[in-house]
Amino acid sequence: MPRMFRTRPCAWLLPPVVAVAIALIDVVLRSRLWPLPVVGLLDGPAHLATAWLALRALAPRSTPPWLWATALAASVVIDVDHVPMYLSDGGFTVNGGRPPTHSLALAVLLVAIGLAGRATRWALGAAIGVLLHFVRDVATGPGLPLLWPASHTAILAPYQAYLIAVAVLALVAAYRSRPRTEMQPVQASSLQTSESRPQTSDQGRPPP
User: For this UniProt entry, which segments traverse the membrane (predicted)?
Assistant: First the structure.
């Protein structure tokens, strides 16, 4: 079993705690207009936490650790495209919103790269991380140009839908993280020993 899914007695508590942390981060973000560096320091962990919850709730237990690591990293690293966006004074955006790399086109490109060969399979994890990044972005800020370049319209979901999704993911992740009791298999050798042991009865005993 991958290390990510080894359950501990209190592991089921972590997903709800992470969900509450995401909600608290958003309360702080919405409390005032923060400088961009502060927004990045708060929003990045919220993206990482959202991706972790989704993977913990939905990823098969056989998911290899490298895919976990790549997906979690990509769920944050994708925001590096904000650098050219700010340096270009908003020129590297779709209709003044988020960059064109915040679209499904990037995820499709990463999947194509990942399917090209074993050496590039890391891109499959990156594609998952990008999609998990969109789970939060589609409900915050100006939305996402998901269908770029086919459409320049930004798609914006209700923020409440994101919170509900986080809560559901936390519940599923907590359920999957609950301690499980495993049955210890009986060894065949012990069965054979007990079967081969001679049975005695009162009828077979010699008279005193």
Answer: 159-175
